[in-house]
Amino acid sequence: MASAGKAAVIREKSGPFHIEDVEVGEPRADEVLVRIVASGICHTDIIVRDQVLPPGPPAILGHEGAGVVEAVGSGVGLLAPGDHVVLAPMSCSMCRNCLIGHPMNCDSFTPLNFGGCRADGSTAYHDSHGGKLNAHFFGQSSFSSHVVVSARSAVKVSDQAPLELLGPLGCGMQTGAGAVLHALAPPAGASIVVFGAGAVGLAAVMGAVIAGCDPIIAVDLNASRLDMAVELGATHAVQAAEDAVEQIQAVTGGGADFALDAVGLPTTLRQAFTALNVGGTAGLVGANALGQEVSLDLMHLLFGRTVKGIIEGDTVPSVFIPRLVELHLRGRFPFDKIVKRYPFTEINTAVADTEAGRAIKSVLIY
Ligand SMILES: [Zn+2]
Ligand SMILES: [Zn+2]
């Protein structure tokens, strides 16, 4: 039987989110029905609202959901009603990258997460007039009180953890922390610089603290975000400016071993790359419109430097998210410090605060 729910629906490019009654279909054999308790708001929700990336309206976005399993399909063995879950991006489980443990590089990542529908083109979501809604965004569409997701996207977590905080672990937090702990994997004592002290960049700073990096340099335009980076363990804060690279070279004695661009602009990636020591690696996690290009100094690259694109921290979500939950419970991943809560019905205020920089990580409570 279909479930009645409430969802925040986008009806026009860059328009507001409308809270509407929606109908959510029943889970198929490999799916589960989840009652959403809370959802983070991520930069990618905002650029999809603006149609920088698909799916277009009418659509239900949201991809940092946390909730409780209400029903499971006949083929689901590892989850049961009552389980606490964090929802993670979808992957196919069968392609080469999925099979070798890099599901966030899945060959079908784009259609499965940005296609607006299931892999077979169907949707579980309709509005009150029976109209089809683009949904299954990142396998979930968590701006809905009830979601139908593949069991592969639902990561069971400890019921000792504060469920309403955990949604951002499914995207922003695993993107930043995973980029450091998984993709860059710096040894203890390595130097690292993080461009952008928003939610993803601050998660990277927390990851760098766990990895034992030193120094940890945060770069941003916003002084209060730099203060937060220092509170979370950055050893140095650098005001983003023309001379940011010189400042990083001064702190590191020549250049950083690792750099992460959590902004995603050609200028910030170029600075992250330029700030590297010989043999250093720069990672890119910030998303932008298709077709942007960056120019890099060839001889600087030739001296053993690497530039690496990193999707969702290149993690295996069902392994990494429970690990972040455990680190949080032990006080070693204090991402709650950057969370600001809003009632679900105030989604437009939360989005405006996120865009204006008044909130680092907005979380909607259902
Ligand atoms: Zn795959
Ligand atoms: Zn995201």
TrEMBL record:
Q: What positions does the domain Alcohol dehydrogenase-like C-terminal occupy?
A: 199-317
Span of domain Alcohol dehydrogenase-like N-terminal: 29-158
Kindly provide the name given to this protein in its UniProt entry.
NAD(P)-dependent alcohol dehydrogenase
* InterPro entries, sorted: ADH-like_C (IPR013149), ADH-like_N (IPR013154), ADH_Zn_CS (IPR002328), GroES-like_sf (IPR011032), NAD(P)-bd_dom_sf (IPR036291)
Native source species: Mycobacterium helveticum
Instruction: Drop me one GO molecular function for this one.
Output: S-(hydroxymethyl)glutathione dehydrogenase [NAD(P)+] activity
- Gene3D superfamilies the UniProt entry points to: Medium-chain alcohol dehydrogenases, catalytic domain (3.90.180.10), NAD(P)-binding Rossmann-like Domain (3.40.50.720)
Give an example GO cellular component term for this record: cytosol
Has the keyword Ligase been applied to this entry? no
Is Cytoplasm one of the keywords?
Answer: no
> Please, one GO biological process term?
formaldehyde catabolic process
